[in-house]
Amino acid sequence: MNGAEARGIQKARTAACSCGCLKLTLEGAPERVYACACLECQKATGSAFSYRARYLKQSIVADEGERRRFRRITEAGRWMDQVFCPTCGTLVYMEAEVLGAQIVVSVGCFGEPDFAPPAAIFWSRRRHGWYEPDAEIRLLD
């Protein structure tokens, strides 16, 4: 434990887009870290799955830069916003009707290779055949 943690000060992390114009700084640990292999996450990230950290909105200590939102309506009829940089297109975070006072941040935007691994992968039946998660990661459909 470092000195700041011993005094109860939690680590602040900054998530930034590729060009650095959109930045979101959050203090403390995420509520949950997860992956999702649903088709929407695959399309949004251009990858086989998303890797995200869920935070309370009150964890945001700095929010800077221009952003755009893409809103889609889920199969359940609720809205979900993907928030991205209008310059480079990086999807930095998401807000959703079901999340209320929480947001989910794209873990890759933190640029921290030692970030916590996902505790679960949602829509695991949609994951690509080559991807076999570690045994500690719960597979949820």
Short note summarizing the structure:
The chain is 8% helix and 39% strand. It has helices at residues 3-6, 39-45, and strands spanning 12-16, 23-27, 32-36, 50-56, 60-64, 68-73, 79-84, 91-96, 102-106, 120-122, 138-139.
Can you describe this structure?
The chain is mainly β and 141 residues long. It has one domain (13-139): Alpha-Beta Complex (glutathione-dependent formaldehyde- activating enzyme (gfa)). It contains 2 helices and 11 strands. It has helices at 3-6, 39-45, and strands at 12-16, 23-27, 32-36, 50-56, 60-64, 68-73, 79-84, 91-96, 102-106, 120-122, 138-139. It has an 8-stranded mixed sheet. A 3-stranded antiparallel sheet has the order 1-2-5, with no helix packed on it. A hairpin with a 6-residue loop joins strand 1 (12-16) and strand 2. The longest helix has 7 residues, at 39-45. 26% of the residues are buried.
Which labels suit this protein?
single chain; 141 residues; mainly beta; glutathione-dependent formaldehyde- activating enzyme (gfa); eight-stranded mixed β-sheet; three-stranded antiparallel β-sheet; 11 strands; globular; disordered N terminus
Name of the level-1 CATH class: Alpha Beta
Q: Residue share in helices? A: under 10%
Structural category is: mainly beta
Taking the alpha carbons of the first and last residues, their distance comes to 37 Å
According to CATH, the homologous superfamily is glutathione-dependent formaldehyde- activating enzyme (gfa)
Low-confidence stretches: 1-8
Read across the widest sheet, the strand sequence of neighbours is 6-7-8-9-4-3-10-11
CATH-derived architecture:
Alpha-Beta Complex
Domain count, please report it.
Answer: 1
